[in-house]
Amino acid sequence: MKTRRTNRKGPFTALLAAAALVGLAAQAAPARLRIVSPIEGGYLAGTVRLVAEVEPSSAVRDVAKVTFYADGTQVCETAAPPFDCEWDAGERIRAHQIRAVADMRDGSRLVQTVATKAIEYVEAVDVDLVQVTAVVTDDQGTFVTGLTQKDFVVSEDGRRQTITNFADGSTPVELVAAIDVSSSVQAALPGMKKSAARFLAGLESRDRVTVLGFNDNIFTLARRSTDATARDRAIGRLAAWGGTALYDAIVKGVEVLGAQGGRRSMVLFTDGDDQSSHVAVNEALAQVEASDAVVYAVGQGRAVREKDLQKLIQQITKTSGGRSFFADGANGLDEAFAAILDDLRHQYTLAYPAPHDKRDGAWHKLSVEVPGKKYRVRARQGYRLAPKP
């Protein structure tokens, strides 16, 4: 009698073979370089951020460097993701050719080029890009990631706009940290300094930060830099004295950010008790309305207890698309700073040419949506194209 033998390894061997084929197929997928920003046929003006990605993600480790060229001239090179850099496209929207070249470790090269468009000008009128920073969450309050330019609809005064620039939270942020060092925060200052230092330490290494201190006056503690050590030293030297010029600090922070490119944010640490500003609150709010910077505020002391102060701070932050937090004690501060860091890591930046040919200071209402999804989008509510001085 013959015994029938069963090959028990058959199905398992087949699975291994299938997995091997999938692996070979994945390995065979060629690496590809893609310019994320600007897009083909888009518009560029002012300081812009050039962004490229290498796909699939497994190929990123094979990249030795990525070099950006604008109109045939090298702009910069970077050896680590995110592959991006700043470039000044000039005041007017002209046609440009942007080229990215990825040098791979095996000696090969990946290249992509996009062409942007010009806008015809009438006499000497400038055309500006309107930039909007948006944070998207679902109905559970969880950040929504992985959205693309095509997922968004931006409307101005009820009219849909053509998005020409897009970036996500992987691009560096330009940040102003403005810290209240007036006499009214003396008791809270030690905890504030520790929490502020931890907050700044949580930023990405490529983020650029300016640290301002304010009481009766506004003074720069650490100039725009990625140097974390310099920021820590600056915060460590803080001492409380004098009155509070909160509105002056807002105006100064917006001015500092106005000269930088890419994502812009300001974080205010204050008790909100303005006593010494040279500008009125309406002037400070007008500066925020004219800027594309996102303003966050962390209120302590009097701001925690007085509802009128809270409403004022909330008005300023909400107009910009930011958030306000009111906290007593180190734990509350740390929670507020952690929430702001989360926001900064999940921002989307959208831009389109301003559909106006004059700076008349009029208010233009903005709306940002992700159609077809039950998402909540937080972004600035509008802007004023202020007259040039």
Give an account of the 3D structure.
Helix 2 packs parallel to helix 8, helix 4 (246-258) runs parallel beside helix 5 (281-290) and helix 5 (281-290) runs parallel beside helix 7. 25% of the residues lie in helices and 34% in strands. Among the domains are: 32-126, Immunoglobulin-like, CATH 2.60.40; 173-345, von Willebrand factor, type A domain (Rossmann fold). The strands form five sheets. Strands 14-13-12-15-16-17 form a six-stranded mixed sheet, with helices on both faces. A four-stranded antiparallel sheet has the order 4-3-6-7, with no helix packed on it. A four-stranded antiparallel sheet has the order 11-18-8-20. The protein is built from eight helices and 21 strands. A hairpin with a 2-residue loop joins strand 9 (153-156) and strand 10 (159-160). The protein is an alpha+beta fold and 389 residues long. It starts with 9 loop residues before the first helix and ends in a 5-residue tail after the last strand.
